[in-house]
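Notes on consecutive records. When two proteins share a document, each keeps its own sequence and its own token line. Never mix them. Below: protein one.
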Amino acid sequence: MQKSADKKPTKAATETLVGENKKARFHYEILERYEAGLSLKGTEVKVLRQGQISLDEAYARFDGEELWLLGATIPEYSHGNLQNHEPKRKRKCLLHARELKKLKAKAQIKGLTIVPLRVYFGGRGFAKVTLGVGKGRKLHDKREHLKDKEAKREIRNA
């Protein structure tokens, strides 16, 4: 009798996507990506497990030495009580100190913005956010981006 090899599940298989910011890839040219943990309250985690979050107007900003996620909307938990959270409160992003230093240096460069790209639960069940350092696109850049996407789609369909 042969033993079956123990295979680890792939990273993509262990992640559970909660929300994605598709507009960010259109409005910004993403130069770098970082994975950060999120400091959340209990009712926020329950709402995220239901798949409810809006990252449309969200961005990240430094306050001292800490990185905060602002503008992300997590609606109130339907079965919550007085301990329920505020939907648009700022949430702390958890990164290593060296990553925070790199990110802070990039954020101080004129024209670069830190935007959340997606929120998901990692393999161990913790809420994670993928942050992108992006450079804003001008209107003509957005048009070129759309033309390139259209051309790639036509090539793929042909």
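Protein two starts on the next line and is unrelated to protein one.
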Amino acid sequence: MAWDYIKRNILKQKKTDPVWYLERQVNFGNEGKLDAELLKQYLPKLNITENKRAFLELLLWDKPF
């Protein structure tokens, strides 16, 4: 896993800034599944590549490319 933070600090940051946490999960991977509801809520705010955004939209809403 490519986290560059201490796990205790990640959990605190996750609660206060879900956008940051989702960006980290999408860009660097995670230990489990992405939270679909949080992803739907914050996808427009995420700083990710357009290819990743299009793929996630396809998975979440079945939108074509």
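For the record: The CA atoms of residues 9 and 15 lie 10 Å apart.
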